[in-house]
Design a protein that fits this description.
Layout: E1 3-5, H1 6-12, H2 18-21, E2 26-30, E3 33-38, H3 41-67, H4 77-89
Parallel strand pairs: 1-2
Antiparallel strand pairs: 2-3
């Protein structure tokens, strides 16, 4: 994991991450825990594009399942939850 201490950014400014961000996302450590991630704009836009594509793929899959009658309706939440519990127990 590519990391930098928050104190280094405070001391040197954002230029402290310039070289590191070329290697990939930089995790900013604050109080010994990852607190933030700094990345290039292109990487961020790529993540957003991939999320959008995955969302659209899930919608297409759901529509295909409806078309192929692979869905079920439940009359109430209780019967839905019972089915979920039964499937997770298997």
């Amino acid at each position: 994991m590519n990391t930098i201490a928050a104190t280094e950014i405070k001391r040197y400014g954002i230029s402290a991450v310039n070289d590191k961000v070329d290697l990939g996302p930089v995790h900013v450590i604050k109080k010994n825990n990852p607190a933030y991630v700094i990345m290039r704009e292109a990487q961020y836009n790529n993540i957003l594009r991939e999320l959008d594509e995955a969302y659209i793929d899930r919608i297409h899959l759901s529509l295909q399942e409806i078309k192929n009658k692979k869905t079920r309706r439940f009359n109430n939440v209780k019967s839905l939850m019972e089915e979920i519990e039964q499937q997770t127990a298997e």
